[in-house]
Structures are given as structure tokens and as C-alpha cells.
Amino acid sequence: MSEEAAGRRFADHHRVGAADVAADGGAHVFAIARWLQETAFADGLDSGFGSEAFWIIRRLRLEIARLPVFPELLEVTTWCSGKAKSVAERTSTIRGDAGADVTAEAIWVHVDPETRLPARLPEEFERIYGPSAAGRKARASLRHPPEPPTDAERLEWWFGESAIDLAGHVSNLWYWQPAEEFLGLPAAPADNGVPEPIVLEAEFRSGIGHGLATVHRAGRMLWISAPDGTVAGTLAVVHPRA
């Protein structure tokens, strides 16, 4: 992912707290996702395009070269790196005073808050964020297989009511909890060197409510489904494969 961008950039700071990390001191991926989301929201408020806008995340790709650790101070820098009719791509970097190094690329769909259908990006968005997009086109198409293979392992997960967000369904943050449980996500850096970078992807297809969810696992990928069988999201460890 390129970090080069002209136009608007926004930076925010976060401290890695005790509730953000596992026993080894390394940050949970859901904490990384939360810092990214909070910085994106702060960017919107700062720019004047945020308090009324309604977005749904479609895809998130994380390249983790070095995991944030407790109690590291992080700087999160974000910018619009592409756009289309109703879609925007947001690239963010996380850098820390203990060496944290994460790059994120997220696809967000701008939707009408009443109909929940995609809505064209307004002229105000173009004025504020268009220069950093520099004509690059954001693509909302999903890449993961939409359904698990027939021989996938079947597991279960429970999403509590506290996982529900303002949109009325489970926040994208909490999809990373079953991924951490069932896929073995990154640990804190070893004292003797930097671990091999890891690449994670999440794709979101539909909302899911609180309660029991079905999880299918095949290799290093999960499909998370509602009780009626509708796949709500997929998560994958892209690198390393094993």
C-alpha cells in the first residue's frame, strides 16, 4: 500500500491501554480496528464532513509489520486514497513510539441514513477529500468466496447485546474476536527481533444481530453467518498462509 498522498491528511493519537491488549502485551486486532474507526470519525468532525454522514464498511485490509504494545503511544494518520460514485477508500497508518507499524486500507460505502441504500458522494466530500484521492478509483467489490466450502469446520460464536452499534447490528470491530479465537492472530513482537509481517482481511456482506452466530472455518479463513445461514462477514489471514 502506498503512503504517498497529496491533499488532506489527518492525524490523531491513542495510548495503548490495558483493555486493548492480550496477556503478552500485544494489541488485539479489534483495538486496532477501533483506533482506525475513531480516527476516521475525528477526521470527519474536524473537516466538517462527518457528523451527518452515514457510512458502512465493506472491506478492511491490515498489514501489520509490528503490533502495537502496552503502553505505547500511537499516531494514526489517515487520508482518502480513492473514491467512486458512492464509495470512498481510506488509507491509514499507525506508528508508535515503541515501533508499532500498521497500514490499513478500508472501503466505505456512503449510504442514505433513512433507506440504508448507497448514496452519491456530495460535492462537499469532493472539495475536502477529492485532492488526496487524486483520481484513483475505489472499488467496493468483494474478493472472498461468498460461501464456505462444504467440508468447512462448523463452530459457534455468541455476540452479546453490547456488540450492537448505532446501525443496529454487530459492530465490525467485534468480528475480530472470533478471528482471534479461531485463526490465531498476531502476538506481541519478540524481544529478539521483529516478527514476520502479517496481512489480514475482513469483508462485510450484511448485518448480523446479537445472539448465536455460526462460524465456518476452512484453512485460514472464517465465514460468520446469521442463524438463517446468511453470511454476514468473512475474515482471512492472507499472509503468512500457515
Low-pLDDT runs: none
**C-alpha-based Rg, rounded:** 18 Å
Structural class: alpha+beta
DSSP strand count: 10
* Pattern of helices and strands: EHEEEEHEHEEEE
CATH class: Alpha Beta
* Morphology: globular
Question: Per DSSP, what share of the residues sits in E-state strands of 2 or more residues?
Answer: 35-45%
Q: Number of helical runs?
A: 3
Strand order of the largest sheet: 1-3-4-5-2-7-10-9-8-6
- How far the N terminus sits from the C terminus, by CA atoms, comes to 23 Å
Domains, number: 1
Classified in CATH, the superfamily is Hotdog Thioesterase
Instruction: Tell me the helix content.
Output: 10-25%
Structural descriptors:
Thiol Ester Dehydrase, Chain A, 242 residues, alpha+beta
What does this structure look like?
By secondary structure, this protein is an alpha+beta fold. It has a single domain, classed as Roll (Thiol Ester Dehydrase, Chain A), CATH 3.10.129. The chain contains three helices and ten strands. It has a ten-stranded antiparallel sheet with strand order 1-3-4-5-2-7-10-9-8-6. A hairpin with a 3-residue loop joins strand 3 and strand 4. It is globular, with a radius of gyration of 18 Å. The protein starts with 9 loop residues before the first strand and ends with a strand. The mean pLDDT is 92.
